[in-house]
Amino acid sequence: MNRTLFLLGFLFLLSSARAQSWQIEIRDNLSRMNMEQVYRIGPDSLVITGVADYGRSKVDYLRRTLSNKEIAALTSMLNTYPADSLKELYFDGYNNFKQIDADNYPRALELKIEKDGKLIVSKATNAWVALYVKLFEQVNPFLPAEVRITLDKSRFNVFY
Predict the structure, then answer these.
(1) pTM (2 decimals)?
(2) pLDDT digit string (tens) for 6-64?
(3) Yes or no: domain 21-155 corresponds to CATH 3.60.15.10
(4) Is the dihedral of CA 56, 27, 43, 8 positive or negative?
(5) Which parts of the chain fold into alpha helices (H)?
(6) Strand partners of residue 63
(7) Distance separating alpha carbons of residues 26 and 112, to the nearest angstrom
(8) What is the dihedral of CA 114, 25, 120, 150, to 10 degrees?
């Protein structure tokens, strides 16, 4: 009897852990050469790291545990977010740039969304993607104001 209860309890914990199996990773070059911010949001934590000073400095910006309320909100959002609709690549040429240099560089965003063992990877370079913006609007409230992800639609010529 005790073994049966133990086995049922173990299976319940295993299924609960599997239900919470998700991660969002967002890489953003901030329209700068050799720069990057990486946002990793998992079922229990938020980690923001990056590369600054045009590739000279690695930055550990933030590491914190998510509250139960934040976890519930993110899990709910991820259950309704249409990650399967993301294309693998969104790209526009560089013809809207008169010059490409360290401060005038194409915006590159990369998403990795893992949920219940399924991994979806998508990259947008020099393109505005409505599904990305929808995700950023949902994630931004959990980020400090100074590192929220914003896209200026007027800087793009191609919209998906």
Answers:
(1) 0.83
(2) 545 555 554 444 456 899 999 999 988 889 999 999 999 999 999 988 789 999 999 99
(3) no
(4) negative
(5) 2-19, 68-80, 130-139
(6) 47
(7) 7
(8) 130
